[in-house]
Fold each of these.
Amino acid sequence: MARLATRSMLKSLALILIISALLAGTAGCTGASGKTGVTVFTGGTGGTYFPLGSKYAELLNQFSDNIDASAATSGASVTNCKAIGTGECQAALVQNDVSYYARKGINMFDAPIPELQGIACWYPETIQFVVKADSNIMSLEDMAGKNVAVGAPGSGAAVGCEQVLQAAGVWDSITRFDLNFGEAASALKLGQVDVGFLVAGAPTSAIEELAVSSEVRIVEVPDNILTALGAAGYPFYVRQILPAGTYGMTTDVSTVAVQAMLCVSSELSDDVVYEMTKILFEHLDELRTVHTKANDITLNSALDGMSLIVHPGAIAYFEEAGVTVSADLKG
């Protein structure tokens, strides 16, 4: 009897695995309903990607008769780029610097991901070097010899921190701590590190929470560093100004930013991606109800900082809407 029960259980497990494999294979394909499955990878539930990506999937379902969309939490940019390559998802929110590395097959990517293509850049994700308000660190150069929390190992943030501090000439002289910003905030309060680093849309709730118990400020990233980053082959950085009042600071602070962007799989048809792009820009008001960062999404700025070849379906929409797509973005 035990042997029969075991055989029955194995047959049931095999059936479950077969069904799961079949279901996984339908994403991005036309199902029995005639709709194309589109899974949108977002980020953690506490971040910005999750509410925006979830609402976008909802809008795709609401306004398309051809798309069956769903949103999923994920490990954000690096995970999302890799998931596009493996077919685990067909659309994702990522940082444009990370998508650049994925396209090239460098840094945290062992090989290029040719399936990765762009739809639009959404909003700035700000480079933020955080220090206590009474710190004697007034510039990037002042970080020489200091303890700096550079980001989690292998993360896009850690790579960005290295690029900026290399451009400032201090990367090799800092003592590096591989901490995410939650860990860095605690270390900063305890005096274990002098600087915490993160890349996120500003104002960032994690810094606002830190500022409640410890006055903080953001260290400036000046024009010469932005120029040096471009010359070093990092075209995705853009200028950003944090206005006075951010985190309680009394003056504007110049820094730089990468961009959050929506990318898709090249395996999706032109018609589907055209519709995805059209729904995005025709329903921005609905997207803006879930997060203020959606206010930064505009048709005119959609290709600013674009680090990928743009999907032909998105190109068709842009050109129809009067937006010029440069030759280098057409592949």
Amino acid sequence: MIHSNQRVSKYLSKIYQFITISKNSNLSHTYSCLTFTLIKTKLPLDNHNFELTNLMKKIAIISGLLSGLLFGIATPLSKLLLTDLNYFRLAGLLYIGAGIAMIPFVMKKDNNLIKLFTQRNILKTSGIILFGGLLGPLLLLIGLQTAEAASVSIWLNMELVATAILGVLIFQDHLDKFTWLGVILTVLAGVIISIGEGISCVISGLIDTGACICWGLDNHLTAITDGASPQTVTFVKGIVAGLVNLLIGVVISDNSFVLNNIFFALIVGAFSYGISISLYVTSAQNIGAPRSQILFSTAPLWGVILAYILFRGSFRWVHLLAILLLAAAIAAINLLSQNHIHTHQTLEHFHYHKHNHNGKNIPIRISK
């Protein structure tokens, strides 16, 4: 018992040192330091020694849920903003907001921002900005203009399908039968939504699928970009693409800006496309990417709930059926699939990918 207490005291001392060192750094880095200490000290598994670990896990679970919540509510809130802002203006403001939210991360000395513009990465970075920052949000908002916010919230899971199929066709990835099952169930959910709401909904669904294809390309390009964190990528994509879309929106619009709309759009972008990513990173660093991805995948549910609250829409059975199909798809991909998502933790960096049996990397969604 004395020996065990000495080890616990030594462990807690290390924890205190890490907290002291990390007090001026971001929260997710502090959690990563604590997790690394847990692994290195190899303390016995008992309730007293791992009380702090359990607290960290609870915080990580809450972070994962909040990440999905913040991302999910962006769709109905964007629907509201489209009444006063055109597509370009809103897309620009949302992503500028996301970029602003990432400023604390890029202010760090080890942000590796310059690596995005090296000869090795410049084409990938350009593709990320074009597909993920310019075209993706623009197509989403065009489709959202004529469709129900609840339906679009569900359609956004087509990004999973786009990422998987693009991986097979372009990046030579291999998907097992459970991953394909998840892809099929996700497509089926989108088809049910479209059929249940008529031809205009089908057109909007196709436009939003185009947005998901753009984000699928964004995912793959982000996964193979060397050296930069998701926060750094989000900052560059948000500021550059956001400013371009905003400028186009100002030029083509005859209406003047309303200050309240600008502020609201920036706040939505900062929380839904910026802080949401940081919360996901925090969650994944502490409970692993598979569990974090499942928590994040609650996003469509939050979007549907808020859409009903904001727009007083009547309950549609197709939405419930689609959500059930998405839940089955998430279970197939994250729990049954042999393409396990896993993470490599160190004090300095964090990788986001999953390996299949052929050694190829299949990126999961880490940013928008």
Amino acid sequence: MSTNPAAKPALASAGHALPEADMVKPVARPAIPMAGVPLAAKDYKGTLPPVWCPGCGDFAVLAAMQKALADLQLAPHDVTFVSGIGCSSRFPHFMNAYGFHAVHGRSLPVAVGVKLAMPERTVIAVGGDGDGMAIGAGHFVHTARRNPKIAYVMMDNEIYGLTKGQASPTSAIGLKTKSTPFAGEGKSADQPINPLALAIISGATWVARGYSGKVKELTELIKQAINHDGYAFLQVISPCVTFHDIYEAAKANQRQLEPTHDAKDKFAAMKAAMTDHWVTGVFYEEHRQHFGAALDAQKKDATAKGVTGLAALSQKLAATSTA
């Protein structure tokens, strides 16, 4: 039998069990919360341990999310996480809540569908910069303009980590990666996307940025995102220690928005979003009718008018065919 590690998947698919050391062991299933007992962060820990690289910023985002849900006292069975594909998109597996692991770039339309079908549920989409800003960019724009009452937490490490270090849509100009081996200052053809500016101009009604190195601040931002009465987008600076370690740069440059910043001023929000990508805080907030409420109003109006148009014609034809 081959001792080549690359042969292990083949052995497993051939019906041979993998060595115990190579298997991810689930943690004990969380106890069902007791009625009347306040929920704690540990009550939101899932059955699988995170498999991220040691030092990954996503660990802090996970901890902040669990603390935020505990602070809000949201029952695990009332929360649904939806993700796409990527390192951070494994998030639902590590939470004690409902989860939907969707296909690449499709977390937002699935999340919107869940919210429309079950409006009483707290729906949180999660993913990375590659998932959200590349293949998922179209859904990002249209979700923002529709303003559904969901939160989207994007863990931005400026790299494709799951596929081992390629340039992502938010990678800085000149970043040398496996997919841009000849890049250098002034040699890259790709201008990075600015997620905050794109969210604001597309119609998102709550837009903020956090940093995984400041868990307390991040926890508060997540709570605000969940409580917002429309589409809340939270970009999180979440460094990848393996393929693009920006911790030192974050420590040196990260700061909060000026206390005088007016989050209700869209032009001020755009200016702040375009000025410094290390700044954290709430950049923009407005309140307008969310997508679910708008659809409910349309349904009510349609019901009052009765069946007309093609629907009426189809009913007439159906009645004629059965006569």
